[in-house]
Amino acid sequence: MLGTRTKQVNSYGRRGSRIVSVLDRRDRESANSSEAASDVDPPPPPRAFRRENAIIISPAKPRVGLRRLGGSTRSPRSSPLTRNAKPKAMRDATTKRMQPKLESSTHIRQPLTPLYRNGTSSNEQPSSGVKGKSKAFAIKPTRTGLKPHVPVIAVDIIVFDEDGSMFTQERRLSCTEMRANQPCSATRKGKKNPRMSSPSPPPIAISDDSDLEVASPKPVAKQLNRRPHAIVISSDESGADDKDTVHKKHSVPLAKSHSKLKSHVEVVIPSAPSRKSKVAKKPPSSPPFALTPPRAPAFRPRPAAVPSLLAPPIPITRPRQLTPIRGNSSRSLFRRAPPTPSTPTEADLSLDLAQLDLSDTTEIDDLASVQPEYLLPLLGECAQTSPYEFSAFIETFPFDPIVQSSAEDEDVRFRKIGEASYSEVFGIGDVVLKIIPIRFEEESTHPETAEIPAPSDAKDVLKEIIVTQEIGEICDKFVKLLKTYVVRGKYPSLLLDLWDEYNERKGSESIRPDSFGLTQIYAIIVLPNGGPDLESFTFKNISKSGWHQACGIFWQVARALEQAEHLANFEHRDLHWGQILVKNIPVKKLTSKYPTSRVAMDDPRFGVKVTIIDLGLSRMNAMDARGSNVYWTPFDNEIFDGEGDYQYDVYRMMRDLIGGAWKSYHSFTNVMWLHYLATKLLHGKRLKPPGGKRQTGGGAQAVSPTGYDEQECYDCLAEMERLLGNRIASTRKGQKTRRKTVAPSSGPKSARDSIDMSDKSTQLNTEYILRLDSYLEPFLPAIERRHKQFQQWKDTILEYEGGYEKFTKGYEVMGFTVKGDGTVVYREWAPNAQEANLIGDFNQWNRMSHPMTKNQYGVWEITLPPDAPGAPAIPHDSKVKISMILPTGVRIERLPAWVHRVTQDLTYSPTYESRFWNPPAAERYQFKHPRPPQPRSIRIYEAHVGISTSEHRVGTYKEFTKDVLPRIQKLGYNTIQLMAIMEHPYYASFGYQVTSFFAASSRCGTPEELRELIDTAHGIGIVVLLDVVHSHACKNVLDGLNAFDGTDHLYFHEGSKGRHELWDSRLFNYGSHEVLRFLLSNLRFYMEVYQFDGFRFDGVTSMMYLHHGIGTGFSGGYHEYFGSGADDEAIVYLMLANDALHALYPSLITIAEDVSGMPLLCIPVSQGGIGFDYRLSMAIPDMWIKLLKHKSDDDWDMSSIVHTLTNRRYGEKSVAYAESHDQALVGDKTLAFWLMDKEMYTNMSNLTPLTPVIARGLALHKMIRLLVHSLGGEGYLNFEGNEFGHPEWLDFPREGNNNSFQHARRQWNIVDDHLLRYQYLNNFDAAMNGLESKYNWLASAQAYVSLKHEGDKMIVYERAGLLFIFNFHPQKSFTDYHVGVDVAGEYTTILSSDDREYGGFENVTSGGKYLTTPLEWNGRKNRTEDLFGASESLRGESTGLDVITYESYAIHMCSTQDMDVRLNLTRAQHFAFAY
What we know:
This protein is α+β, with helices and mostly antiparallel strands. About 25% of the residues lie in helices and about 15% in strands. Strands 31-32-35-38-39-40-41-42 form an 8-stranded parallel barrel. Strands 43-44-45-50-47-48-49-46 form an 8-stranded antiparallel beta sheet. Strand 48 and strand 49 form a beta hairpin. The chain is globular.
């Protein structure tokens, strides 16, 4: 901190920021004086004063040379001030004539208003007159130390005409604690100049640094004959003498004067406002103020939270026009210095209000009144009244919240990242600043002494801002406008240094922007950083995915243009590759021997994300209050003369096509730029054409997640370049010949046509569908019909809602939304209501005080202004409802449908109450960790927060975060599936009777605690899925969606179609536009607000069929999937949900709970599928329950078990599980309880003998889970607690069990007790997951099963380079057992369920080595020799229990040719799919 009270002063020049002392002052003594010219306090006695900064008013040159002052003095020619000085007599006369005007026109400064430096100030002090003469040297001003005074001084600026008469004056303020710069050496008078006819007068220069001198250009000869007009800046001391003035030699460019007027300006530092006195005072011994040395700028680390640093200027209370300049000039002689952004400093900026003059007489300049007319619209668009100071803006911008909101590890230093013809682009954090110099439109053109970057007209920049904002809001892939500013001043040295570094590193084609003057205006457009432009973009892996990325870039740009064309008749007109930003995005790698379904070519899975920028030359239609407007900007003619790049050919082709009608819409310009883009991608990025389709040698083919190989992507681009080029060529030929007989050419005429061509080439691929399943051929019309319905809905959403991006964010519009100032807006869809009122604690439940208004779509709305700035009218967590009157006159009250929190108090009612959730910023949880990448293979831990405690109560989010997440991480699961999160009134429903879809269950805690849970999981690399219920809704009326507006068909189908007979719940109307908005926004809400990573969709079977699966057994006949029983509306909704989610979140995971086996369920929507990533293999747990309940161990059919585990649809991924929550519900039992039953109560202790029941149960529990894990699918799921064999069943508190929590909890104590055998099952589960994370068999192709021996009860298969062996025989043991393998070599045991640490007998040696013999065995090329030696039989000899032979093994090929082994195994697996 500084040692004294200070404040920061921003000024122009090299000393851009100074810290000066602010001395404490007492109040001025009040005294009345009849001599006072205005209503002000009596001033202190007069002091001597000096003049400085005398300047010549003339058109400014763009650049002024500076040199250091040395021992030599300047030549007479270089000092225009002394050369054109006014004689003393004339000055005395003019000051006497102007004195009355000064006394009657100046006013007191408005208290608590800013003191504007370097320009005309709105904070004026009264003047007492002017008197004095010029002198070559400064005399120290006098000051009395006895009288109180104010810490500011007034400066009068007086302008004389040609005859020496005063015609303008204005007042400025300064600080009395600042010492003026030391005067220069004595000046010399120049000759009188009677004429001023030259259009190029000498420049004006000012320096605030005493050691800098301006080397002024030589004046034009014709200008030396005319005497300039003097502007005298006088003191308020009427008794001051001319000997107390001094001419200052330094000068700086200012605003131009009228062409017929040249003025002489003398700036004099006067005393503060005081009583007029003719008594001369003795000068003080020291100057009244001193200037602290400039400090070197230092970069300060950004604070944790910084308020907005760019607050708008202080509001104007009383406008006043400045004195105009004669000669029809609309601009002020001195340009007002801009108010700088508020900047937090270490200085103490406190004010002593007792020292302020709080008189009634106030006057503040209207800041906007002095700005040129052409600049006012731009300032208005930026919400400014005057420009900010450039250097101060750059210094404070790193602390702006828009920069602070970027990632913590983001570089918050400025860096130059690009340039354009009319702007420079600098980056900081994750945003970029596009800096555009503005042309002085009111000034005449003057010869330039230095080349400057080309400026832009303010109106063109305004158009660019409007177009960027509008297109960015309604169209994807276009840059989103963040903020805009207007600044003024010289280019900051920091940015110039970055410009030099960029020039040295890459070379710059633009002009160094150091020649701009102090009065230069710039527009700054703040945009998100979309990555490098296409010209400098580097493809991630040219040889493997270069053409994929190039194809993705092209089609994303084409899709963006097509969307903008459709919505706004948009043309970019300047879409060269510097206007396309490209980012690499991660894409999950797939390894499969099956063809991957194809995705749309603008899909993010092509590995790139495109952002289109720089819309300054674009053309678009827009609607505003005045009607339809067309925004467009003409081209400079020089652009059509460019050579050396196809870009300039496109400009000329556009000119020829448009023919001067630039305002009209010409979609063909977009076609030209798409052809340009295709050409650049094919020939300008050093991508080599692929040599054809390539196979990965020796094993699995590396398959692209897009479904295309590199050759197909290259062919697509080449074909589009050909078609677009042919179309352009034929169009140009028609223009040249101008014959009506020219045959119309084929090819696209717009970006929309290009997309249509792509859609035709990538439309529903029936060949691919039949390749997946030939039995689908008779049902292709039904599949195409569904896909067409989906496309119609998607087009409707795009046309009327702006696409998925806006349509799925209904939660930002509907329900309660809070603005930054505390304004609350509430909207609700209830078309049947005739009246609606918002009621709650905030208005004492007054049903008439807050009426709502209804629009044409049946949406009710009310806006509640804040009680105070930032204080909403509705208190946080207070109760609210909507009260409505129906057409029948009945009043009903409902919980808001989009409410974020509801609570239940069972002490007086089971009905929920809605609450306004808007916690203070300090109480809102802020996410600290990014989402983890999508796991290569998913290992899911299904959990219910409420039952996750050992106590007899409901568990909480906090407890789950603290106690359960570490367990899940230790077990090796990488995905959590959270159940019962969406609010449900009946706890025993397991969360499947939802009433409030946007409210997280309040039983377990607050929304902020749930956010913390998810963020903590992300911090340890775990993905979190939500068990979402969109298949039905609770039928509650008072606290649900049922009969929300008095009808039974608002959100649901009416009548029996809208009711589920078995579940006693309501069924959604998936064909309703608003229902789709509600459900899709619900998914987006949990992705954005809670940061979930995907969804497990419950009840998908019920959704997809009109019979909802009730009383229907699916036989596998395809007519059941595509016949009249299918609900196409619900299927189309699922397609929309998956398509939208995967488009918005490429790494998202969706899982379908379907028991019917619907074909194409897990095929992308673009290929005719429904779009899920995984389906649950629901037949597997049913199989195990049937075996354990109805068959003895001897009757287990190995072939049937293998068939159930491997029977899944070709090309679709599934999640396998031995048991889930369904198997544990009341009426059923967990697998462990089926295996060991009542002995779990007595014989699970290590201190008791191992009984045959417990030994069998432990062995089969491990074997079943490893078999399902490694053979059953592409994902694995375990329900909470079952990993360690949780006993009994699951039963929630209800009336039938006396509301007991006995079975609604997890008994973690039994697995944590090392005296119990539950630990062995827990250890094996962790080892199994750990092995999968190492070898990734879930992400590998399906296993090759080489042995299903019914007599031996053996199952043997190979997957992911591992050999799995299972012995399910209850009696037989084996020695010297042989199994077939495809790869010769040496194998070793890496996991055995018979190990001691897993509760086994160690009959198999861990790490044992086994060799192969090149002898065909079980259809494999080799067989293992002596796989189990005599000492390694499967018998439990230590206990004498011959029946205990159930064990399983995972054996790894560990020869030096390990990689070849894996490849060959994968090739073998290719043939495994033949059956």
